[in-house]
Amino acid sequence: MNWSDSERIATVLEKSGYKPSLKMEGTDLIVVNMCSVRQSAVDRIFGLVLKFVKFKTLNRKLITILTGCVLKEDKNKFVKEFDLILDIKDLQQLPSLLKTKTSNLKSKTYLEIKPIYKSNFSASIPIMTGCNNFCSFCVVPYSRGKEISRPAKEIICEVKNLIKRGYKEIWLLGQNVNSYKSDKINFPKLLKMVNDIPGLQPTLHSINYCPLAKAGPNFWIRFTSSHPKDLSDKLIDAMAKCKKVTPYLNLPVQSGDNEILKKMNRPYTVSHYKNLVKKIRRKIPKICLSTDIIVGFPGENKKQFQNTVKLFKEIKFNMAYIAQYSPRPGTVAAKFKDDVSHREKEKRWRILNDILKKTASENNKRYIGKTVDVLVEDYRNGFLVGKSCHYKTVKIQNTKYKIQNTKLIGQFVKVKITNANPFGLKGELINHKKIKREASL
Question: C or N: which end of the chain has fewer Cβ atoms within 10 Å?
């Protein structure tokens, strides 16, 4: 969401006569797009402020702006450090605040601003913003406000324009994307509408799926982030039936203990979460599941942590984003006693990470010898690097064919997997003729 917001900020500034700079020093305007999820992200802003003081001695005309996810408490701390603090929802007002002479903005809300996409093959499209859940550890409802969904017609129009321009990957974004609702259209229905946008696409729910096997435009649909309480049977059915929706889902569980979940204000039980996973895997057998976990939450004792360990071993996640709890001012949890030592949090993190390495490694080994399709994102250190439809990071060797690696960036390629580790795959580029034809389009 931060990347998506930055694209809209860039649009507003460029339409107001500004030109992008590759470095902060010597510029006329610096905009900081802040993330408030973790305190460490907020603390980094203070480090930037020290640089701004130096820059202003060299250029007195320099204007500094803070926007993004900014808590009221943080706004009070930074008010003297920035020339302007702007709520991201008021982004369309920026030209008038800067008193620029030229601006072609006609948007009523910031979500209506047509972004300047940084990628020419992958686009992030916010379909809603805000959150109504108020998890005790999270600041998002306070920094983003209540949930607001974009009109479906507006979203579909944006996706269609991107597909016409040759985009291969569409990310549907929301702080709680599953709760999207505009008029009578909910998220499962929106997913079907996006899926029905023309573009030939063989089934993705197999490791042997090959997008270059047929001619015509291809694109993947991904979405984030999901909340277990809003993952309905209708959404699972839509994911299974919509062939452009990739078989990957991040479904944050946060804890494997019911008491801790209640303390986190997560309105589901471990049993409910496990039943969801069973439904998903029954409908989409090749689904890759990732999750989010917080270890050392206030009051989490060793027995409660062992319940998380038990769930971790049982589910066998493909990936997990494991965070050590740290108090975030402005949240309900910040009022709890942070009674799990840093050393114990480190220990619990290592235990879960070791389990993840083992299960992820086992899951990835099944790809060895298989042909997978990868959307190439970059070329670095002698390898093409991209993501498979299962959201696996793949390093690709291109030694057999005389084709420029940079031409393959933003293209679907076929890769035979030769090696696997817990957090990625490695393979060789195959099917040279079709790749060459696709790269020259």
Answer: C
